[in-house]
Write a structure and sequence with these properties.
This protein has about 600 residues and is of the alpha+beta class. It has 25 helices and 10 strands. Helix 11 packs across helix 12. It binds zinc ion (ZN).
Amino acid sequence: MLKETSTNAMLREVTIDALKELQEWMVGLDYREDAYKAVKAYADKKPDLKGEDGKLFFETMRDYRRAGLDLPKPERDQVERMRKELSRLTTDYESNITKAQKAVKFTRAELEGVPDSFLEQVKTGDDFTVMANITWHYLTIEENAKREETRKRLLIEHDNLARNENIPLLEKILPLRDDIAKKLGYKSWADYQTEIKMVKNAATAIDFLEKLKTGLQPKFDAEVAEFRKIKVKETGDANAQINIWDWRYFSNQLKKEKYTVDAEQLRVYFPYQRVLEGMFNIYQSIFGLKFERVEAPYKWIGDLQLYAVADAKTDEPLGLFYLDMFPREGKYNHFAQFDLIRGKLLPGGKYQRPTVALICNFPSPTKDEPSLLSHQDVETLFHEFGHAMHSIMTRAKFARFSGTSVPRDFVEAPSQMLENWVWDKNVLDSFAADYRDPSKKIPAEILAKLKEAKLAVEGTRYRRQLSFGLTDLALHSRIHDDNAKETMPISNKILGEVFFPMAPDTAFVAYFGHLMHYDAGYYGYAWADAIAADMATVFEHAPKGYFDEAAGHRLRTEVYEPGDSRDVNVSIEKFLGRPRSLEPFLKMIGIGQNLAGTRTE
Ligand SMILES: [Zn+2]
């Protein structure tokens, strides 16, 4: 938290070093011989532990095995050395991404179609300097530049960022991971990583992605055909094809032409404070909670807000959340929920209730206007606050199982489910109103168009996700010492087959940060999306829809309260009241009928 939010630059620097030291210490902790021996001696008595205690016992022993503790001493030491080496290499890969910069100069004519407001910001003398490494620069050009050559040039620079530094590192990291996995008795790093997730093994994850890939083929083809139609019209070339540097531009054109959607015009309906209170009302009511604003004992920024959460019926205090919602220099620049204090049962029988913080970057208020959120911002707020609810309602006995400490391929599902709320007219009408004239609600047709426009490119969006997921799994199951140099060819081949052929001589994987701390885990986005869509049906079929208290109560008691203290598969099915189904997800992304072997409702 200090590293991400402190207003003191020196303090932020110091915490980076402290963190490195802490991480190294934590790897070392796994190899504490005395601790391992004590636990092992206890394990040898074959204790009969049940429920959460049994799970803690099983996972503790499993984690020792995964660290190599049951290997003979020389091999164990080798695994420890390799893990520390891996930790250094991955830190370097990540620093190279942070440091990578590439300025690309364009003339005014080359930037035809790009908004003036953007041009003003990148003007340098007679030319314009665009930074390939600044995401919003990159996206603004790729989505708006009318000239293909411009989009292509910038994409090639972008997909070569950190190439010289990170490809050699990847060629060390991937075989090293493979070696570690094999030393520990796994077929691959992908199998090692997925063992402790919902999918359990790499084959299941690959199979899931492959099925989706095939199922999405017709929709993806149809979407690309739409892009092509626009390109043919724009260029006059009857044979025009859609390339990797084209899809963002033509999906933007498609949205503009066919759905006449201007998402910006929705901002007036979403002044920050009104949205926040509206969301509070919904969550308080469906989960049976009450939130009360309290004075923060310590504030790292002036506009910090602190709230206490209690059970609405019993008044039992449940936890606290901080809101640090607007950007500033040196602050974490995404949106996330941070755990400050985890829930757990204390030795004396008292329960330590959690404290969390939402660290967000919504548009700051100006002197003329309140902070006005985009519809996507509202979706993000509902999502992140869902994580806060997950943390705060916990009743897990042990901190390692409490709140959001569930398998990584499940943790996003409840929050992704809550994103559905902001696409519902009734939900939006409960709080969204034009800040200049609150009698004005969001016109139904704008919301409908926004939905249609989203669905119109969903095939493309998912095929891109799948191309990343399949590449990630392939790199972590096919690369070993003998073929480390194949890293680039293998990844470019898969990315190209599942999405669009990569631009010649580019190295996308050099700048793909997920390969470090989400390694063999990228599939998890689609996996959790599928569970989220399934879980949403509980509310959709409930008498009061997204306002249904009984469904909310079930989410609270079956998913949020247990956390990881029991198998999440059990929690999901208890919440659903039936076995899981992939059907709601397929329907949501518009391919309900295309996947062989799935049942229809
Ligand atoms: Zn999330």
